[in-house]
Amino acid sequence: xxxxxxxxxxxxxxxxxxxxxxxxxxxxxxxxxxxxxxxxxxxxxxxxxxxxxxxxxxxxxxxxxxxxxxxxxxxxxxxxxxxxxxxxxxxxxxxxxxxxxxxxxxxxxxxxxxxxxxxxxxxxxxxxxxxxxxxxxxxxxxxxxxxxxxxxxxxxxxxxxxxxxxxxxxxxxxxxxxxxxxxxxxxxxxxxxxxxxxxxxxxxxxxxxxxxxxxxxxxxxxxxxxxxxxxxxxxxxxxxxxxxxxxxxxxxxxxxxxxxxxxxxxxxxxxxxxxxxxxxxxxxxxxxxxxxxxxxxxxxxxxxxxxxxxxxxxxxxxxxxxxxxxxxxxxxxxxxxxxxxxxxxxxxxxxxxxxxx
Length: 357
Description:
The chain has an 8-stranded mixed beta sheet. Strands 6-7-8 form a 3-stranded antiparallel beta sheet. It has helices at 9-13, 27-31, 38-48, 77-82, 94-99, 113-125, 127-132, 148-157, 193-199, 247-259, 269-275, 277-284, 286-293, 311-326, 330-338, 341-354, and strands spanning 18-24, 54-63, 66-74, 107-111, 133-139, 164-171, 177-182, 187-191, 222-226, 240-244, 262-267. A hairpin with a 4-residue loop joins strand 7 and strand 8 (187-191). The chain is α/β, with parallel strands linked by helices and 357 residues long. The mean pLDDT is 94. It has 2 domains: 11-140 and 214-276, 3-Layer(aba) Sandwich (Aspartate Aminotransferase, domain 2); 285-354, no CATH class. Helix 13 (286-293) packs across helix 14 and helix 14 crosses helix 16 (341-354).
Protein backbone atom coordinates (compact mmCIF):
# COMPACT_ATOMS: atom_id res chain seq x y z
CA UNK A 1 0.00 0.00 0.00
CA UNK A 2 1.44 3.35 -0.99
CA UNK A 3 2.34 5.68 1.81
CA UNK A 4 -0.47 8.12 2.40
CA UNK A 5 -3.26 5.69 3.31
CA UNK A 6 -5.35 7.41 0.67
CA UNK A 7 -5.22 10.73 2.55
CA UNK A 8 -4.72 14.03 0.71
CA UNK A 9 -1.49 15.97 1.20
CA UNK A 10 -3.35 18.48 3.39
CA UNK A 11 -4.00 15.72 5.93
CA UNK A 12 -0.25 15.42 6.49
CA UNK A 13 0.95 18.98 5.92
CA UNK A 14 -2.02 21.18 6.76
CA UNK A 15 -3.26 23.79 4.29
CA UNK A 16 -0.42 24.97 2.08
CA UNK A 17 0.24 26.90 -1.11
CA UNK A 18 3.57 25.57 -2.44
CA UNK A 19 6.36 23.17 -1.40
CA UNK A 20 10.12 23.57 -1.79
CA UNK A 21 13.41 21.70 -1.38
CA UNK A 22 16.72 23.52 -1.02
CA UNK A 23 19.14 25.40 1.21
CA UNK A 24 20.56 28.85 1.94
CA UNK A 25 22.73 30.18 -0.85
CA UNK A 26 25.15 31.88 1.54
CA UNK A 27 27.71 29.42 2.93
CA UNK A 28 28.09 31.55 6.06
CA UNK A 29 24.37 31.16 6.76
CA UNK A 30 24.55 27.40 6.27
CA UNK A 31 27.69 26.93 8.39
CA UNK A 32 26.06 27.10 11.81
CA UNK A 33 22.69 25.66 10.83
CA UNK A 34 21.22 22.36 11.95
CA UNK A 35 19.72 21.85 8.50
CA UNK A 36 20.13 23.84 5.28
CA UNK A 37 19.95 27.31 6.82
CA UNK A 38 16.68 28.23 5.12
CA UNK A 39 15.10 29.73 8.27
CA UNK A 40 18.06 32.05 8.85
CA UNK A 41 18.15 33.06 5.18
CA UNK A 42 14.45 33.96 5.20
CA UNK A 43 14.70 35.93 8.45
CA UNK A 44 17.69 37.89 7.14
CA UNK A 45 15.84 38.73 3.93
CA UNK A 46 12.71 39.79 5.81
CA UNK A 47 14.81 42.02 8.05
CA UNK A 48 17.07 43.55 5.42
CA UNK A 49 14.18 44.16 2.99
CA UNK A 50 12.32 46.13 5.68
CA UNK A 51 9.38 43.73 5.92
CA UNK A 52 10.04 43.32 9.66
CA UNK A 53 11.86 45.22 12.42
CA UNK A 54 13.06 42.04 14.09
CA UNK A 55 12.39 38.37 14.76
CA UNK A 56 11.52 36.54 17.98
CA UNK A 57 14.07 33.72 18.09
CA UNK A 58 15.45 31.32 20.70
CA UNK A 59 18.78 29.72 21.56
CA UNK A 60 20.51 27.85 24.38
CA UNK A 61 22.84 30.00 26.51
CA UNK A 62 24.74 29.42 29.76
CA UNK A 63 22.98 31.13 32.65
CA UNK A 64 23.52 30.70 36.40
CA UNK A 65 25.72 27.69 35.87
CA UNK A 66 23.54 25.73 33.43
CA UNK A 67 22.27 25.86 29.87
CA UNK A 68 18.92 27.62 29.58
CA UNK A 69 16.71 28.56 26.61
CA UNK A 70 16.83 32.28 25.84
CA UNK A 71 14.21 34.02 23.71
CA UNK A 72 14.63 37.58 22.45
CA UNK A 73 14.07 39.91 19.49
CA UNK A 74 16.92 39.61 16.97
CA UNK A 75 17.36 42.87 15.08
CA UNK A 76 20.44 42.19 12.95
CA UNK A 77 21.92 39.54 10.68
CA UNK A 78 24.48 38.69 13.37
CA UNK A 79 21.83 38.18 16.04
CA UNK A 80 19.77 35.98 13.72
CA UNK A 81 22.81 33.79 13.01
CA UNK A 82 23.53 33.55 16.73
CA UNK A 83 20.18 31.79 17.16
CA UNK A 84 20.92 29.03 14.66
CA UNK A 85 20.67 25.28 15.32
CA UNK A 86 17.87 23.31 16.95
CA UNK A 87 16.69 23.31 20.56
CA UNK A 88 15.39 19.92 21.62
CA UNK A 89 14.21 21.07 25.03
CA UNK A 90 10.71 21.99 26.14
CA UNK A 91 10.54 25.73 26.85
CA UNK A 92 7.77 28.40 26.98
CA UNK A 93 7.27 31.07 24.33
CA UNK A 94 3.98 32.67 25.42
CA UNK A 95 5.42 35.14 27.99
CA UNK A 96 7.70 36.57 25.32
CA UNK A 97 4.85 36.81 22.83
CA UNK A 98 2.70 38.83 25.22
CA UNK A 99 5.47 41.40 25.67
CA UNK A 100 5.41 42.05 21.93
CA UNK A 101 2.15 43.97 22.34
CA UNK A 102 4.16 46.91 23.64
CA UNK A 103 6.49 47.07 20.64
CA UNK A 104 6.22 49.25 17.56
CA UNK A 105 6.46 47.81 14.07
CA UNK A 106 6.07 44.35 12.59
CA UNK A 107 7.93 41.17 13.54
CA UNK A 108 8.48 37.53 12.67
CA UNK A 109 8.08 34.73 15.22
CA UNK A 110 9.93 31.43 15.03
CA UNK A 111 8.37 28.58 16.98
CA UNK A 112 7.40 24.94 17.28
CA UNK A 113 3.93 23.70 16.24
CA UNK A 114 2.44 23.88 19.74
CA UNK A 115 4.00 27.29 20.35
CA UNK A 116 2.56 28.76 17.15
CA UNK A 117 -0.86 27.30 17.94
CA UNK A 118 -0.67 29.22 21.24
CA UNK A 119 0.43 32.35 19.35
CA UNK A 120 -2.65 32.14 17.12
CA UNK A 121 -4.89 31.83 20.17
CA UNK A 122 -3.25 34.88 21.72
CA UNK A 123 -3.70 36.87 18.52
CA UNK A 124 -7.43 36.16 18.53
CA UNK A 125 -7.61 37.32 22.14
CA UNK A 126 -5.34 40.37 21.66
CA UNK A 127 -5.90 42.01 18.25
CA UNK A 128 -3.05 44.45 18.93
CA UNK A 129 -0.70 41.46 19.06
CA UNK A 130 -1.87 40.28 15.65
CA UNK A 131 -0.87 43.70 14.28
CA UNK A 132 2.68 43.14 15.48
CA UNK A 133 3.22 39.65 14.02
CA UNK A 134 3.76 39.72 10.27
CA UNK A 135 5.21 36.23 9.77
CA UNK A 136 5.08 32.98 11.73
CA UNK A 137 7.88 30.57 10.85
CA UNK A 138 7.20 27.03 12.03
CA UNK A 139 9.85 24.43 12.85
CA UNK A 140 8.97 20.79 12.31
CA UNK A 141 8.98 18.93 15.63
CA UNK A 142 9.02 15.23 16.47
CA UNK A 143 8.63 15.86 20.20
CA UNK A 144 10.14 18.09 22.88
CA UNK A 145 12.25 16.75 25.71
CA UNK A 146 12.48 17.82 29.33
CA UNK A 147 15.84 19.39 30.06
CA UNK A 148 16.67 16.50 32.42
CA UNK A 149 17.86 14.50 29.40
CA UNK A 150 20.42 17.13 28.43
CA UNK A 151 21.63 17.23 32.04
CA UNK A 152 22.11 13.47 32.02
CA UNK A 153 23.97 13.38 28.68
CA UNK A 154 26.36 16.17 29.69
CA UNK A 155 26.95 14.41 32.99
CA UNK A 156 27.69 11.16 31.14
CA UNK A 157 30.18 13.04 28.96
CA UNK A 158 31.84 14.59 31.99
CA UNK A 159 31.06 18.13 30.80
CA UNK A 160 30.32 20.55 33.68
CA UNK A 161 27.52 22.90 32.69
CA UNK A 162 28.92 25.73 34.79
CA UNK A 163 32.03 25.73 32.56
CA UNK A 164 30.16 25.94 29.22
CA UNK A 165 30.56 29.15 27.25
CA UNK A 166 28.79 28.12 24.03
CA UNK A 167 26.71 25.12 22.98
CA UNK A 168 25.06 23.84 19.79
CA UNK A 169 22.92 20.72 19.75
CA UNK A 170 23.48 19.94 16.08
CA UNK A 171 25.58 21.28 13.22
CA UNK A 172 27.03 19.69 10.13
CA UNK A 173 25.94 17.21 7.53
CA UNK A 174 23.07 14.74 7.96
CA UNK A 175 22.65 13.93 11.67
CA UNK A 176 25.50 16.27 12.50
CA UNK A 177 27.53 16.77 15.65
CA UNK A 178 27.08 18.49 18.99
CA UNK A 179 29.54 21.30 19.78
CA UNK A 180 30.57 22.57 23.22
CA UNK A 181 33.02 25.37 23.96
CA UNK A 182 34.23 25.71 27.54
CA UNK A 183 35.30 28.86 29.36
CA UNK A 184 38.94 27.76 29.28
CA UNK A 185 38.85 27.69 25.47
CA UNK A 186 38.60 23.93 25.04
CA UNK A 187 36.18 22.67 22.40
CA UNK A 188 34.38 19.35 22.72
CA UNK A 189 32.46 17.72 19.91
CA UNK A 190 30.64 14.42 19.64
CA UNK A 191 28.03 12.87 17.33
CA UNK A 192 24.56 14.31 17.89
CA UNK A 193 23.30 10.73 18.15
CA UNK A 194 24.96 10.48 21.56
CA UNK A 195 22.02 12.66 22.66
CA UNK A 196 19.63 11.71 19.88
CA UNK A 197 19.64 8.00 20.64
CA UNK A 198 18.06 8.68 24.05
CA UNK A 199 15.67 11.23 22.61
CA UNK A 200 14.65 8.62 20.04
CA UNK A 201 13.75 6.41 22.99
CA UNK A 202 11.32 9.15 24.09
CA UNK A 203 13.14 9.47 27.42
CA UNK A 204 11.85 12.46 29.41
CA UNK A 205 9.43 13.31 26.59
CA UNK A 206 7.17 16.27 27.40
CA UNK A 207 3.80 14.74 28.26
CA UNK A 208 1.75 16.94 25.92
CA UNK A 209 3.77 15.65 22.94
CA UNK A 210 2.02 12.29 23.28
CA UNK A 211 -1.26 13.95 22.25
CA UNK A 212 0.17 16.13 19.45
CA UNK A 213 -1.18 15.73 15.91
CA UNK A 214 0.75 18.63 14.35
CA UNK A 215 4.18 17.86 12.94
CA UNK A 216 4.37 20.49 10.18
CA UNK A 217 3.49 23.56 12.27
CA UNK A 218 0.12 23.93 10.58
CA UNK A 219 -0.58 27.29 12.25
CA UNK A 220 2.48 28.87 10.63
CA UNK A 221 2.77 31.02 7.50
CA UNK A 222 5.71 28.90 6.39
CA UNK A 223 7.21 25.70 7.76
CA UNK A 224 10.79 24.39 7.69
CA UNK A 225 12.49 21.10 8.50
CA UNK A 226 15.14 18.51 7.67
CA UNK A 227 15.10 16.76 4.31
CA UNK A 228 15.60 13.16 5.44
CA UNK A 229 15.72 11.82 1.88
CA UNK A 230 18.11 8.91 1.15
CA UNK A 231 19.12 10.35 -2.22
CA UNK A 232 20.45 13.46 -0.44
CA UNK A 233 22.53 11.69 2.20
CA UNK A 234 25.67 11.80 0.05
CA UNK A 235 25.06 15.36 -1.20
CA UNK A 236 27.81 17.69 0.10
CA UNK A 237 25.26 20.31 1.21
CA UNK A 238 22.49 19.48 3.64
CA UNK A 239 19.01 20.38 2.36
CA UNK A 240 15.90 21.73 4.03
CA UNK A 241 12.28 21.19 3.11
CA UNK A 242 10.01 24.21 3.43
CA UNK A 243 6.51 25.15 2.43
CA UNK A 244 4.45 28.30 2.13
CA UNK A 245 0.88 28.53 3.35
CA UNK A 246 0.02 31.82 1.63
CA UNK A 247 0.66 33.23 -1.86
CA UNK A 248 2.66 36.05 -0.26
CA UNK A 249 5.10 33.59 1.28
CA UNK A 250 5.31 31.63 -1.97
CA UNK A 251 6.30 34.85 -3.75
CA UNK A 252 8.93 35.51 -1.09
CA UNK A 253 10.48 32.08 -1.66
CA UNK A 254 10.49 32.54 -5.45
CA UNK A 255 12.15 35.95 -5.12
CA UNK A 256 14.85 34.50 -2.87
CA UNK A 257 15.42 31.60 -5.26
CA UNK A 258 15.77 34.03 -8.17
CA UNK A 259 18.34 36.11 -6.23
CA UNK A 260 20.31 33.05 -5.08
CA UNK A 261 19.51 33.66 -1.41
CA UNK A 262 17.91 30.23 -1.51
CA UNK A 263 19.17 27.45 -3.77
CA UNK A 264 16.63 24.81 -4.70
CA UNK A 265 13.36 24.27 -6.43
CA UNK A 266 9.64 24.02 -6.04
CA UNK A 267 8.68 20.41 -5.43
CA UNK A 268 5.64 18.23 -4.87
CA UNK A 269 4.08 17.68 -1.43
CA UNK A 270 4.88 13.97 -1.55
CA UNK A 271 8.60 14.83 -1.37
CA UNK A 272 8.00 16.63 1.94
CA UNK A 273 5.83 13.80 3.23
CA UNK A 274 8.48 11.24 2.27
CA UNK A 275 11.20 13.33 3.95
CA UNK A 276 9.34 13.24 7.28
CA UNK A 277 7.52 9.95 6.92
CA UNK A 278 7.99 8.42 10.38
CA UNK A 279 7.30 11.60 12.33
CA UNK A 280 4.15 12.19 10.31
CA UNK A 281 2.89 8.68 10.98
CA UNK A 282 3.66 9.13 14.70
CA UNK A 283 1.58 12.33 14.83
CA UNK A 284 -1.24 11.54 12.44
CA UNK A 285 -1.80 7.78 12.75
CA UNK A 286 0.00 6.35 15.77
CA UNK A 287 -1.84 8.78 18.03
CA UNK A 288 -4.88 6.53 17.74
CA UNK A 289 -2.85 3.73 19.32
CA UNK A 290 -1.55 5.99 22.08
CA UNK A 291 -5.12 7.06 22.77
CA UNK A 292 -6.19 3.43 23.11
CA UNK A 293 -3.35 2.33 25.39
CA UNK A 294 -2.66 5.43 27.48
CA UNK A 295 -4.73 4.29 30.46
CA UNK A 296 -2.56 1.17 30.83
CA UNK A 297 0.31 3.50 31.74
CA UNK A 298 -1.66 5.89 33.93
CA UNK A 299 -1.84 8.53 31.22
CA UNK A 300 -4.47 10.26 29.14
CA UNK A 301 -4.00 10.94 25.43
CA UNK A 302 -7.07 12.69 23.95
CA UNK A 303 -7.89 12.00 20.31
CA UNK A 304 -11.14 12.39 18.40
CA UNK A 305 -9.83 12.03 14.85
CA UNK A 306 -10.99 9.65 12.14
CA UNK A 307 -8.13 7.16 12.26
CA UNK A 308 -8.67 3.75 13.85
CA UNK A 309 -5.65 2.16 15.51
CA UNK A 310 -3.99 -0.56 13.41
CA UNK A 311 -1.94 -3.37 14.93
CA UNK A 312 1.33 -1.52 14.32
CA UNK A 313 -0.11 1.63 15.90
CA UNK A 314 -0.84 -0.34 19.05
CA UNK A 315 2.58 -1.97 19.12
CA UNK A 316 4.32 1.35 18.51
CA UNK A 317 2.18 3.11 21.09
CA UNK A 318 3.15 0.48 23.65
CA UNK A 319 6.85 1.25 23.05
CA UNK A 320 6.44 5.03 23.23
CA UNK A 321 4.22 5.04 26.30
CA UNK A 322 6.36 2.48 28.12
CA UNK A 323 9.53 4.52 27.58
CA UNK A 324 7.87 7.75 28.71
CA UNK A 325 6.42 6.05 31.78
CA UNK A 326 9.68 4.38 32.78
CA UNK A 327 11.72 7.54 32.29
CA UNK A 328 9.92 9.02 35.29
CA UNK A 329 12.52 7.02 37.20
CA UNK A 330 16.07 8.36 37.11
CA UNK A 331 17.27 4.93 38.20
CA UNK A 332 15.80 3.31 35.11
CA UNK A 333 17.22 6.03 32.84
CA UNK A 334 20.59 5.56 34.52
CA UNK A 335 20.43 1.85 33.67
CA UNK A 336 19.60 2.61 30.02
CA UNK A 337 22.41 5.15 29.74
CA UNK A 338 24.92 2.67 31.18
CA UNK A 339 24.19 0.23 28.38
CA UNK A 340 26.52 0.32 25.35
CA UNK A 341 24.75 2.37 22.67
CA UNK A 342 24.90 -0.42 20.03
CA UNK A 343 22.69 -2.55 22.29
CA UNK A 344 19.96 0.09 22.06
CA UNK A 345 19.86 0.20 18.26
CA UNK A 346 17.75 -2.97 17.74
CA UNK A 347 15.16 -1.69 20.21
CA UNK A 348 14.99 1.70 18.48
CA UNK A 349 14.79 -0.02 15.09
CA UNK A 350 11.80 -2.01 16.32
CA UNK A 351 10.12 1.20 17.51
CA UNK A 352 10.80 2.94 14.19
CA UNK A 353 9.49 -0.02 12.23
CA UNK A 354 6.04 0.41 13.76
CA UNK A 355 5.80 3.96 12.37
CA UNK A 356 7.23 3.14 8.96
CA UNK A 357 3.89 2.36 7.30
